[in-house]
Design goal:
Chains: A mainly alpha, B mainly alpha, C mainly alpha
Structural class of chain C: mainly alpha
Shape of chain A: elongated
Helix content of chain C: over 70%
Strand content of chain C: under 5%
CATH class of chain A: Mainly Alpha
Oligomer: heterotrimer
CATH architecture of chain A: Orthogonal Bundle
Distance between the termini of chain A: 50 Å
Number of strands of chain A: 0
Number of domains of chain A: 1
Number of helices of chain C: 19
Helix content of chain A: 55-70%
Number of strands of chain C: 2
Number of helices of chain A: 4
CATH topology of chain A: Helix Hairpins
Strand content of chain A: under 5%
Structural class of chain A: mainly alpha
């Protein structure tokens, strides 16, 4: 049961992020929602690679242990974190520009392009 | 290279089409050449007929704007277009909502 | 030493070098930077065409990144691949060639089009990053690598859409695209996580060999299918398309059309090669078909009422994507039934894949002509434009060719692929072909409207000083025009030598798997 707790956390974070994107009106909160989604995806990858009692997957540092956690998800997560950083920075700068142009952070008022 | 494209029901051959296009154009040009040849440039035959009104100087005053194109079509389908434009609301969270809704519906369909 | 085995890596390395060396080239002034942009895009296209030629002759090309040997897919005694593998079959190479031609035309067009603006070294850096992302999505044989290239392409396209950041609309379009695109990328990452959790592999061929349907696989399939159809702009997730396509600079829009094809590529790679015969129920094929039909109809009816020229064309992209989805959905439906595949499925796939190249060429050209109008006349509003055929004869000619091709008027290439799609979808369900025909009629109607209001009509005094666009923009447009005319005049050759190998590669799941995993095992 406790083995599945991390997946539960992933689900909770994921739906919190989704809720923020769907129902929050403030652009900054939407950006936070996207960051939460990224966090849940990263956590999912890390949890998938965990083996109970495993040590770090580096031969020279691990010592005498027999079980190691999987190295691939960690590499994947690092890449995903870097990508997430780039997206967050760009997203926030776009929000800044939007505020400058429209004078509001309400997503329902930024709708010049429609129809 | 000269073969035909078979679609399962018939075929398409661009060269036969071009051949017929050439023949038809020649025919049309021949018929046209039989027409009257008493047109003279620079006389009143050249003048624009604008419903017997004065022809405006600028093209802006007599062109038909794009907003007027197909107005009957749009008017006939007004309920359809009203609902479509309502969907394209321009609000980012609505667009995300459609995406999440599609994921949910498809997930239900696939898992059942 | 046969250097051609390194072509898959070169296809990615050259635009990447072009991107990161752009700021340095920018130091040398305008001429150096323009020359660099032209040089890199020509080289990229040449390498892509060489790769296509090599793949058509030698069969699927595999390239292992970071191994001692380029074809060392299964390292010492392991039965699954651990390195990043580029896997190029006929379909990937075909898509890469199509995308690189669109990128070449867009780059040449942008040389003059963007001339008035500053920060152009950043523009060309982002442009080539977008090209790298697009080509990477099409060449990679690795799910996570696909995600990485998808994000490279997405982030570069956010930057390019908002390149005119003093225009509020451009920033708004970029923001909306960014929200929905990042969300869908996270769905893709979670789907990849599910597949990794089940099979401990991210290589497409390795996962495909072990795949058997369970709940996790079904959820992953749903996430991948919906996210990738969203990225290619299908109804009901198409709302970002008109915003982004209309607000991006025209050369970029031409490339974005190619990038949306890369997402389509991912969709069909997932459906045919990753899931393929284990797809099971016909829900996913029918979903793709229904999305295609809805995209066709809703896209084109929204296009008829648009007043802004690029927005109108962007709605047409939605409807053209619908044709491709419809055709390949029919192919997917027929995948498990050899009789149906021979009767209509393969014809539909040929039509769909032929439509991919046709669509990219004429839609790119249409966006470029719209950009040329905007450049010369300074307006995108159809209510204001008029009488421009007199002063812009070359643009008019190319617009007419592209509009005839998109409306499916014989003898142009759009007609051939649409004919194949109509006649094969008719065999599945006649209503599909009827919707496709009605869509084609409405497409013609809305392009008649554009032609009549922008090019015909009396000369307007405010456009008295308008002239034809500069040379490099004409070069960019003529590249696409020449491709359209070649495709028009030699449809049989194109179908036999480019489209059929691609369709066969897509259907042949076992061949895709064995190229990495070896024959036996």
């Amino acid at each position: 049961m406790t083995g599945n707790a991390p997946f539960l956390v992933v689900g909770i974070i994921f739906f919190l992020g989704l809720y923020a994107i769907l129902f929050e009106r403030n652009l900054i909160k939407i950006a936070i929602g996207i960051s939460l989604l990224e966090a849940s995806a990263n956590l999912l990858l890390i949890v998938l690679g965990y083996r109970s009692g495993g040590s770090i997957p580096i031969f020279t540092l691990a010592g005498e242990v027999r079980t190691m956690v999987l190295p691939t998800p960690q590499a994947l997560t690092l890449t995903a974190i870097v990508i997430g950083l780039a997206t967050s920075a760009l997203l926030l700068s776009l929000i800044m520009l939007l505020y400058r142009h429209y004078g509001t952070l309400d997503v329902r008022e930024i709708r010049r392009l429609r129809g | 290279m000269w073969a035909k494209v078979y679609s399962g029901f018939g075929y398409w051959d661009v060269y036969i089409w071009l051949l017929f296009f050439g023949i038809t154009s020649a025919l049309v040009l021949w018929v046209r050449s039989l027409g009257r040849d008493d047109y003279k440039e620079g006389t009143e035959q050249d003048e624009i007929f604008y419903g017997s009104n004065e022809v405006p100087e600028d093209g802006d005053d007599m062109g038909v704007p794009a907003a007027s194109a197909y107005w009957g079509f749009v008017k006939a389908l007004k309920p359809y277009y009203d609902s479509l434009i309502e969907i394209h609301s321009g609000i980012a969270s609505d667009y995300v909502g459609y995406f999440v809704l599609t994921v949910a519906v498809l997930a239900v369909l696939v898992l059942l | 030493m046969n250097w051609q085995i390194h072509l898959p890596a070169l296809v990615l390395a050259i635009p990447l070098l072009g991107a990161f060396a752009s700021p340095i080239a920018g130091l040398g002034g305008r001429t150096v930077r323009n020359g660099w942009m032209a040089f890199i895009s020509i080289t990229t296209t040449a390498v892509c065409l060489l790769l296509l030629q090599k793949v058509l002759v030698d069969g699927t090309a595999v390239y292992v990144m970071g191994a001692e040997n380029w074809n060392f897919t299964l390292p010492s005694g392991l039965s699954w691949p651990i390195r990043i593998i580029l896997q190029v079959d006929a379909f990937s190479a075909f898509m890469a060639a199509v995308g690189s031609i669109a990128a070449l035309a867009g780059a040449f067009f942008s040389l003059s089009y963007m001339d008035k603006f500053t920060g152009l070294e950043k523009f060309s850096a982002l442009y080539f990053l977008l090209v790298t992302g697009m080509l990477g999505m099409q060449l990679t044989g690795d799910l996570f690598n696909f995600f990485v290239f998808l994000e490279i392409a997405s982030v570069a396209s956010f930057g390019l859409i908002a390149f005119w950041r003093d225009r509020p609309e451009a920033v708004e379009a970029s923001f909306k695209y960014m929200i929905i695109s990042t969300l869908s990328a996270m769905f893709i990452l979670i789907a990849i996580g599910f597949l990794y959790g089940r099979y401990n592999a991210v290589n497409i061929a390795a996962v495909a060999r072990m795949l058997h349907m369970g709940y996790a696989e079904k959820i992953a399939l749903v996430f991948l299918v919906v996210s990738l159809t969203m990225k290619s702009g299908a109804v009901p997730m198409h709302m970002w398309t008109p915003d982004a396509y209309a607000e991006a600079p025209a050369g970029v829009t031409c490339l974005l059309v190619g990038v949306s094809q890369a997402s389509l590529y991912g969709l069909f790679r997932v459906c045919f090669s990753l899931y393929g015969s284990s797809l099971g129920s016909p829900v996913i094929p029918w979903t793709i078909i229904v999305m295609g039909v809805l995209s066709m109809f809703i896209g084109v009816t929204m296009a008829v009422i648009q007043k802004e020229i690029k927005r109108l064309m962007a709605y047409h992209s939605v409807s053209q994507i619908g044709y491709i989805l419809l055709a390949l959905g029919v192919g997917l439906l027929a995948l498990r039934d050899p009789q149906a595949m021979a009767d209509y499925g393969f014809t539909a796939m040929k039509g769909g894949i032929f439509h991919i190249i046709n669509y990219t060429m004429y839609k790119g050209l249409l966006f470029l002509t719209a950009g040329a109008l905007y450049y010369s006349a300074g307006s995108r509003n159809l209510n204001e434009l008029g009488g421009l055929a007199r002063v812009m004869p070359y643009t008019t000619l190319m617009f007419v060719i592209a509009a005839a091709a998109i409306a499916g008027i014989p003898p142009f290439n759009g007609f051939v692929s649409k004919l194949l799609i109509y006649q094969s979808t008719f065999a599945v369900y006649p209503l599909l072909a009827v919707v496709a025909l009605v869509t084609s009629v409405l497409t013609l109607a809305s392009f008649v409207k554009v032609f009549q209001t922008a090019f015909l009509g009396p000369a307007k005094s405010k456009f008295a000083k308008v002239t034809e666009v500069p040379g490099s923009m004409l070069i960019g447009m003529s590249i696409l025009t020449v491709v359209i005319i070649v495709l028009t005049l030699f449809p049989t050759w194109t179908l036999a030598h480019l489209v059929e190998p691609a369709a066969k590669a897509l259907v042949d799941q076992a061949g895709y798997i064995s190229a990495v995993m070896g024959g036996g095992l």
